[in-house]
TrEMBL record:
SUPFAM superfamilies: Nqo1 middle domain-like. The keyword Ion transport applies. It is found in: Cell outer membrane. This is SLBB domain-containing protein. It is a multi-pass membrane protein. The keyword Membrane applies. It comes from the Bacteria. It comes from Geomobilimonas luticola. Residues 31-85 are annotated as: Disordered. Residues 284-328, 372-403, 466-504 form the Soluble ligand binding domain. Residues 1-26 form the signal peptide. Residues 119-193 form the Polysaccharide export protein N-terminal domain. Keywords: Cell outer membrane, Ion transport, Lipoprotein, Membrane, Palmitate, Polysaccharide transport, Porin, Signal, Sugar transport, Transmembrane, Transmembrane beta strand, Transport.
Length: 712
């Protein structure tokens, strides 16, 4: 027979029986396998120069155990000055900013290497290894690919052998045309470059990866720096030197390229050039409300305004009235002084010269917005800016999109005034209709931080709904009016069908469900405190390792039991004695409806379920006037762990009775749709014997949630 589950108080088993294993296996299980130690997580990638944590300053008087390192920091590692600024070095603050520009070289160098197949400009200098393509047509024709040999010469038919090393590409084309003009007339010539040669250069000094590099003959200083990983954190970004034949031919400042896009000094390299990166110059940091907070390298005399400009200028929310500077004096101690940026361009004292190790912080403006808050029945509630003493109630109502159609004429203004004895709160009511007409007694000027509550009409609610399921003539979701009762909605739904089993009707309410859930949670929390209170002390006082393992096993069992209880969810059922409409209407059970109520009316199941500590949990055909023992015997009888004295019956109408007695005054005979619950003996578990009212708590959870908790 099909089991109609929509009407029965569903009692389900949350967990299978946990069988006790032999002591040796239990001890082994409690100790658990030894887990391999986890490998340390990878170091965090270095934050870009645009990232900044603007938290407040921390104490910087802790002793340091940091020692200088001779190893160059990798691109993802922090330099000593970065650690100093970020609070991870000796006596540092908590500002996490990075040295400017070094993250440019974090990408693979192959991404930036110039290709060998690109058009060359007229100033390209030809050298050994270059391939020259010559095409001639007209009165005579020919096509030749020649490679400049190690002597710097090329050989062409008729024109012979001649040197080209050191010539620009423009000069090469002119030379070839001139040489062929000696022998031919009436021809056209095209000269182009084939695959370009490679050259070897050296990147030395404070580079990330110093060494010799073979690069394209079109490469510039920046290309070579990318090959060498760029300057290390101890290398200069502003004084990169190119040495050729023992002389410095150019000094390149990477800041010109990064801050202004200027590559005029990014010259093309020649074979055997040396790119020397000297140690980094003086470093200063700027944090807070600038567009590019970072640590910058100084070059020459640099003032505060120069540093702000290097950082992209201040942001739109920066407060010009305060600049905090930390400075190391004579490599002995750190001091702090305050300044500002007001008229700094014309005030030399404010635009002071920076020193190595300075750290400046630009703060944000104070949050002193003059606003009022409007809430309630307006189109756009929220905060609005006001001119205190000028902006009126009608102005704010208009800014908020006007009132809604269900708005009351009354609004409430809450005003907090600062006094020397403390804040003073005043609450007064205004008439919105008169305020919108400009009545000065109600269209009052608002002050900063006023709270305007626009009320709705009394007891406003668009509509309330209740859901009817099962054996009613027209099931569905129905609206109801204030004070309407259950019988009224059932009659509107056409009344009950001929198959309706009224004894099994289930009525649930959200407010009741929330209350039941809180009660379950409180009981579970109390149990958890009682179960865990003595666990640690028992392990500490165990007389032997075996006893300690057994106590540990009990702790694991307690955690599993509590985890089961935490999954229990209340149903919110209210037990109602629903009868035919003639007697139900106006009775004590004909209760007023609330939003979200649900009633489910099943058909007669004609079954009785038996669950819990029996040998065959199942549903059996209902036989009239049979007692619970009859159905327990059909289920195979009690198990050895059954708690016979606490067997109870969950009736189809939501009430519970104790078998062999009465909780609520009912007899022992079962009805169709009832459930016989045979709990197991909780007292057989040693650690549960001393828990107060454990049986009662388990019973309450089972009745409230319709769930049978199986301990083991």
């Amino acid at each position: 027979m099909k089991r109609p589950r929509e009407f029965v108080v569903i009692v389900c088993t949350l967990a299978a029986f946990l069988l006790f294993a032999p002591l040796a296996l239990a001890v082994e299980a409690s100790s658990g396998p030894t887990l391999p130690s986890a490998s340390p997580p990878p170091a965090d990638q270095e934050k870009s120069a645009h990232q900044l944590t603007t938290s407040g300053y921390q104490a910087y008087d802790k002793p340091s155990d940091v020692r200088p390192s001779t190893v160059q920091p990798a691109p993802g590692e922090k330099s000593e000055f970065e650690k100093y600024v970020s609070g991870k070095g000796p006596s540092a603050t908590s500002l996490d900013i990075s040295q400017f520009g070094y993250d440019l070289f974090a990408k693979p160098p192959s991404t930036f290497a110039p290709t060998l197949y690109v058009p060359v400009g007229p100033d390209y200098v030809v050298g050994p290894g270059d391939t020259i393509k010559v095409d001639v047509w007209g009165k005579f024709e020919g096509s030749w690919n020649v490679v400049v040999n190690n002597d710097g010469n090329i050989s062409l038919p008729k024109a012979g052998v001649f040197g080209v090393t050191g010539l620009s590409f423009k000069e090469l084309k002119e030379l070839l045309h001139k040489n062929y003009s000696k022998y031919y007339t009436g021809f056209e010539m095209n000269v182009s470059m084939g695959p370009l040669r490679t050259i070897q250069v050296y990147v030395v000094g404070n580079a990330q990866r110093p060494g010799a590099y073979t690069i394209s003959s079109l490469s510039t200083i920046i290309n070579a720096l990318f090959e060498g990983g760029g300057p290390s954190k101890t290398g200069s970004m502003r004084n990169i030197q190119v040495k050729r034949n023992g002389k410095t031919v150019v000094t390149f400042d990477l800041y010109d390229f990064l801050l202004q896009g200027d590559k005029t000094k990014d010259v093309r390299l020649m074979p055997e050039d040396v790119i020397f990166i000297p140690p980094v110059g003086p470093l200063v940091g700027i944090a807070g409300n600038v567009k590019t907070p970072a640590i910058y390298e100084l070059k020459g005399e640099t003032r505060l305004l120069d540093l702000v400009e290097m950082a992209g200028g201040i942001t739109g929310i920066a407060f010009k009235g305060r600049v905090q500077v930390q400075r190391v004096e004579n490599h002995h101690a750190r001091t702090m002084f305050e300044g500002d940026l007001i008229d700094v361009e014309n005030t030399p004292a404010k635009n002071f010269i920076l020193q190595d190790g300075d750290l400046a912080k630009i703060f944000a403006v104070a949050d002193t917005a003059k606003t009022v808050t409007i809430a309630g029945a307006v189109a756009h509630p929220g905060q609005y800016g006001v001119n205190p003493g000028v902006t009126k109630v009608s102005d704010i109502i208009s800014l908020a999109g006007g009132v809604l159609y269900y708005t009351s004429n009354q609004a409430e203004v809450t005003r907090v005034t600062v006094t020397q004895s403390g804040p003073k709160t005043d609450i007064f009511v205004v008439d919105l209709a008169r305020a919108m007409q400009g009545d000065p007694q109600h269209d009052v000027p608002l002050q900063m931080n006023d709270y305007l509550l626009v009320r709705t009409v009394p007891e406003w609610n668009l509509y309330r709904t209740v859901t009817l399921n099962g054996e009613v003539r027209f099931p569905g979701t129905y609206t109801f009016k204030q004070g309407e009762t259950l019988s009224s909605v059932i009659e509107r739904a056409g009344g009950f069908t001929g198959r309706a089993y009224l004894r099994g009707a289930m009525f649930t309410r959200e407010r009741v469900r929330e209350q039941q859930q809180r009660q379950i949670q409180e009981m579970v929390e109390r149990l958890e405190r009682e179960l865990s209170g003595s666990g640690a002390a028992q392990i500490a006082t165990a007389s032997s390792p075996d006893d300690a393992r057994m106590v540990q096993l009990e702790l694991e069992q307690k955690k599993h039991f509590i985890a089961q209880l935490k999954t229990v969810r209340a149903k919110g059922r209210i037990a109602l004695n629903i009868t035919e409409m003639a007697t139900f209407r106006g009775s004590a059970y004909d209760i007023e409806l609330e939003q979200g109520d649900t009633i489910t009316v099943p058909s007669d199941p004609k079954t009785v379920q038996v669950i819990g500590s029996v040998y065959n949990q199942s549903a059996f055909v209902y036989e009239q006037n049979k007692e619970y023992d009859y159905y327990v015997n059909l289920a195979g009888g009690y198990t050895s762990n059954a708690d016979k004295g606490n067997t109870f019956v969950l009736q189809a109408n939501g009430t519970a009775i104790k078998a062999g007695g009465s909780f609520l005054g009912f007899g022992e005979h079962l009805g169709s749709g009832d459930t016989v619950v045979v709990p197991e003996q909780i007292e057989r578990v040693a650690w549960m014997r001393h828990i107060k009212d454990i049986t009662q708590i388990m019973y309450q959870i089972a009745v409230t949630a319709g769930v049978l908790i199986v301990v083991f």
